[in-house]
Structure formats: C-alpha cells, structure tokens
Amino acid sequence: DGGITQSPKYLFRKEGQNVTLSCEQNLNHDAMYWYRQDPGQGLRLIYYSQIVNDFQKGDIAEGYSVSREKKESFPLTVTSAQKNPTAFYLCASSRPGGTEAFFGQGTRLTVV
Amino acid sequence: GENVEQHPSTLSVQEGDSAVIKCTYSDSASNYFPWYKQELGKGPQLIIDIRSNVGEKKDQRIAVTLNKTAKHFSLHITETQPEDSAVYFCAASLSGTASKLTFGTGTRLQVTL
C-alpha cells in the first residue's frame, strides 16, 4: 500500500539531547512537510521541501533541522535549542501543485 | 501571514442532527480552503475542499460554504453518525495548493447516540 510512514510512534528523550524523527513515503511525491500539533493550536508548519536537496523554513522552524537527500525521505531533527519539544509531529507529502496533503500517523515526542 | 480562526473548539450533537463548524481567515488573497478530519491516533485526512471562485460544494452528507466578502467558510455535516466523531481542521492556502497550508485550531466533534 502507498503511504507515509512515520517512526517511531512514541519517542522519549532526555532534555538537552537531539532526536531525529523519521518520515518515509512511497507515493512518489515531490513535496514533503513537517507539522507540529499542540492541543488547542492546530497544525503549525515547521519545514517543507518541494524537491530533493531543497527545503524552506515554515512558521516555527527555530530549534529544528531537516534534510532531503532522497525523494522518499524527509527526516526531522529536534535539537536541544527547541525550547518546548514535547508535541505530536506530523509528516505529510503532496504532488507538485497538488491540493491534497497526505499525512502519516504521527510521532509523539516526549522530552523529560 | 495568514491567520485562520476556527469555532467552536468542541461540539456535541446527537446522532442524526446536523453539525456546523465555522472558520475565518485574514488574508483576502487566500484562494483554496480544505477541510481535514483527524480520527484518534491517525493523521488528518482531506474530506472536502473549496476554491475561492466557488460559493458552495457538496459531497453526500458534507458540504462547505465560502463567503469571500466576509472571509469565512463553514463545514456542514448532515445526518451525523457516530463515525463522524473526530477532530476537524479547516485550512487556508495562498498558493491554491497543499503547499504551506495555514490550519485552524481544530474542532472536536462528538456524535452521541
């Protein structure tokens, strides 16, 4: 089945440690996105990539980094500079010029 | 940048009743307005969308209306069923595509028997 796979589903890290969230898609989509979801705040865009080896900051990029070395992969690193990293992270993809974003099932990150 | 407000934050209806969720947007240049449904433990899924050159769109029990002058759009669900229980997000796009969507804060809909 085609889709987006995020792993792991739950992730725990100690404060001050960097952590990388995985996102893989087999939909052959060029565009990929990372959103952060917090209670009562909806989904906020962290980073997006329209094509391999290119990405742009979204609305809340501070404390995060990404890479796009392969079309099917768009990992997100939550660095120790992110002040409030505990959240639900969603990865999505879309066709070029497409109107539908296809989401993964998310990774819940808890930093203690 | 674009700002999208969504109301109510929670909504409880009895099975068979209608549900209405409302959103307003700030940037008059936004031209594409999708609605996503998020079931528990899953990622959001597109259920219906509307472009700025259309006033209303319907798909079976769900419909979306758009008032460009007032900069607001609404989701209408008729004959609600328990499987409609979920969190619903509205969004707005300046690009006309899924690129750089600005989402509302979500509405938790509970359909009771």
Folded structure, characterized:
- The complex is a heterodimer of chains A (112) and B (113).
- Chain A has 112 residues and is mostly beta strands.
- Chain A is 0% helix and 52% strand.
- Chain A is built from no helices and 11 strands.
- Chain A starts with a strand and ends with a strand.
- The model of chain A has no long low-confidence stretch (mean pLDDT 94).
- In chain B, strands 2, 4, 5, 9, 10 and 11 form a 6-stranded mixed beta sheet that branches. Chain B has a 5-stranded antiparallel beta sheet with strand order 1-3-8-7-6, with no helix packed on it.
- The model of chain B has no long low-confidence stretch (mean pLDDT 96).
- The chains are: A mainly beta (112), B mainly beta (113).
- The A-B interface holds A 4, 31, 35, 40-45, 48, 50, 58-59, 90, 92, 94, 97-101, 103-106 and B 1, 4, 6, 9, 32, 34, 36, 41-46, 49, 89, 96-106.
- Largest Cβ-defined interface: A-B, 25 and 26 residues
Structural class of chain B: mainly beta
| Overall outline of chain A | globular
- Count the DSSP helices of chain A: 0
**Mean pLDDT value of chain A:** 94
Global Rg of chain B: 13 Å
Beta strand % of chain A: over 45%
Quick check: average pLDDT of chain B? 96
Tally of separate helices of chain B: 0
User: What general form of chain B does the structure show?
Assistant: globular
Q: Give the H and E element order of chain A.
A: EEEEEEEEEEE
Taking pLDDT < 50 over at least 5 consecutive residues as the criterion, the unreliable ranges of chain A are: none
User: How many beta-strand runs of chain A?
Assistant: 11
